[in-house]
């Protein structure tokens, strides 16, 4: 197949070719471009020892790459040269410099780069001034960075006297606050070079510290003189992020298979999990809560039937679902679940009790009773060392992984409904009802009914009709246990989840809203509407490859999915029977699977369609009767498949504990 002939639509005039390359415009003697920090250290600037003849210089009309373009040709070519050097095409970069007449950087910039990478610090400071960096541009700050590197290298090589000289005569005059020098001066007491590198968080003169210093210094030098590292890649990454932000169904990892330079990125909507592929129906009453294990291999469900079921979920290549554990040693309906970081312990709550389960054997490890009101929230701390419990008795307790109490936050300002710990281990976000009135004890005989009402009943009526409840979201500093932010909200709050980057808190808010709070700014970032919530406890979640979806159940028996950042309602998924969809949970390892549970006693797994099955057909399948399903021979204790529904109802072969 013959390649197509080239067309020069934007350059109708033939370029003029000169038999010999003239001196590039940026420097009369270009040399030494593309050192270690920007690629390789081979001969450059249009000539090399392998060149047999000069490369003719091509002179094109105009200053942009195309007649109808705003992109400057010189900038574009210099970025191409930098990219070629970075990936190893040194001869190609040299040829392009000679042919275009542009060089990546001037000889003075190359000299400055050499001085930093070779550690000739006096020459580096002089070269910095020759590049036109003035005091207004941060010359003193730049020199401070150089002197600090010099100081650390002197200590590393054992030249303590020289290091002290740098500290007193170079660093001290540059620091107006002496307190900033204390961490540096304390490094003099390090026992050896390894101790110095560890305490300074520095990898030494022979590591990457000089290259990182060069990157830091580039912020003081005009980018037109010294191009930032990997600039072309940075621009491509920005284009990729922009395209992803416009792809409202984005749910794919960024790999060469999912992101090509040849076309704009868009995700196939058929890959979005909108079809019910498995229905789990073993619970005999309302299913209130769902939690995936961190491995994504197990799904735990809690029910009003006083039991917890752990389901085993196969890998993506073989997604078999089976009942793994049936934990029935609960005296009351089960409200909360939490997996340990290594998935070896599962916590469950029923009334004032917390139960710790061994997830390998199903054995009950310990029963904890440390609250006087129903336990409303359980959360493991991100380092796996223990967990936090909270209750309507206004107490927050910290427990070790052995189940022994390590700390207590005392009496808080709210009757806590739910809480979550940020993944960066800095904040705890609690929601609940303001405790302006004294707590009234609940008779033990009425405890189960009170708990059921608290979890899935109507909490909007004030006790004895005395007042309208005030609901609060309180953000605590996890170290000091002091509130950083307290927000009063009008409607009932029922659940809180934290984004993986610790920035956002997702709060279900009655009536009929889900709120996204920015924990960094303390402001409401977005509201999601459309679902129905007035009476019941409904738990929402983040989902997708980047947590860019918001998913919530609803009292109309449907599942609602929004785009997190744009607030667009993407899907309304039908399938559950009568009653509320109480909780949703997205698989942390399989970004194309999430689960929902309902008052109809079932759990549904949602995945992408196979063979073009759409959400409407799945919804129609969901309304088949049990008699219809029994004829399909799917009541065998396991379910798998896409584009159809499998039912798991038989538990005769499962472990019941």
Structure description:
- WD repeats lie at residues 280-313, 327-367, 368-399, 546-562, 581-607.
- One of its GO terms (cellular component) is GID complex.
- This is WD40 repeat-like protein.
- It comes from Russula ochroleuca.
- InterPro entries: LisH (IPR006594), WD40/YVTN_repeat-like_dom_sf (IPR015943), WD40_repeat_dom_sf (IPR036322), WD40_rpt (IPR001680), WD_repeat-ST_regulator (IPR051350).
- Helices cover 21% and strands 27% of the residues.
- It starts with 15 loop residues before the first strand and ends with a strand.
- It folds into three domains: 16-105, no CATH class; 109-226, no CATH class; 273-437 and 450-656, YVTN repeat-like/Quinoprotein amine dehydrogenase (Methylamine Dehydrogenase, Chain H, 7 Propeller), CATH 2.130.10.
- By secondary structure, the protein is an alpha+beta fold.
- Helix 3 runs antiparallel to helix 9 (209-217), helix 5 packs antiparallel against helix 6 and helix 5 packs antiparallel against helix 9 (209-217).
- The strands form eight sheets. Strands 4, 5, 6, 7, 31 and 33 form a six-stranded mixed β-sheet that branches. Strands 28-29-30-3-32 form a five-stranded mixed β-sheet, covered by helices on one side.
- The radius of gyration is 32 Å and the shape is globular.
- Strand 16 and strand 17 form a beta hairpin.
